[in-house]
From TrEMBL:
Keywords: Membrane, Transmembrane, Transmembrane helix
Protein name: ABC transporter permease
Residues in the signal sequence: none
InterPro entries: CmpB_TMEM229
Organism of origin: Paenibacillus anaericanus
Stored Pfam families: ABC_trans_CmpB
Organism taxonomic ancestry: Bacteria, Bacillati, Bacillota, Bacilli, Bacillales
Transmembrane residue ranges: 7-27, 47-76, 106-126, 138-157
Keyword DNA-binding: no
Length: 173
């Protein structure tokens, strides 16, 4: 896979993650908008986990792929939750009310959900997205720097806003 393809997949799956979380929020809480770390419509952990699955799972036996589909998203979710809480003192999701959870960042129930979604992703979603990328690769190579810039602006802007809010909260305390 080229860097252009990896970036395309990362952005697509980060956007799909944003959509997935907002649909889940709408179905469970009646509100479509669920605040994420970034201000834009991207959830980077949903971009990272699929890339790791693609890089580690290609050519593996079905049993190994199933295990990777359970372990990789769970590790990505734990590390993401840990880092966000450590850096910004905020927890965007909390599984402490769920059984078999670890520090509120992961729980068995959602790890099993991620495993099933990951299998569906590898079997049905990624082949279609891969076909889409193949068809638009000549265009993507030319426009991807714009998307990279937009993503980086969102990342830097969000980081600055969140750090300012954190400093403001610390001063008030």
């Amino acid at each position: 896979m080229t860097m252009d393809a990896l970036f395309f997949y990362f952005l697509m799956y980060s956007l799909f993650g944003w959509i997935l979380e907002n649909v889940y929020s709408y179905l469970t809480e009646g509100v479509f908008w669920k605040e994420g770390f970034l201000k834009g419509p991207f959830k980077p952990m949903y971009g990272v986990a699929p890339l790791l699955l693609l890089l580690c799972g290609t050519g593996q036996s079905f049993v190994v792929v199933m295990l990777l589909c359970l372990v990789i998203p769970t590790i990505v979710e734990y590390i993401s939750g840990y880092l966000l809480k450590r850096v910004f003192h905020q927890q965007w999701w909390n599984y402490t009310e769920n059984r078999m959870q670890l520090h509120g960042h992961i729980c068995l129930q959602f790890s099993l959900y991620w495993a099933v979604l990951s299998l569906v992703f590898l079997r049905y979603i990624h082949p279609s997205i891969q076909g889409l990328y193949t068809n638009m690769e000549p265009i993507w190579v030319k426009v991807s720097p714009i998307f990279l810039l937009l993503f980086l602006v969102d990342l830097v802007w969000t980081y600055q806003v969140r750090r300012r809010a954190l400093k403001s909260n610390l001063i008030e305390q």
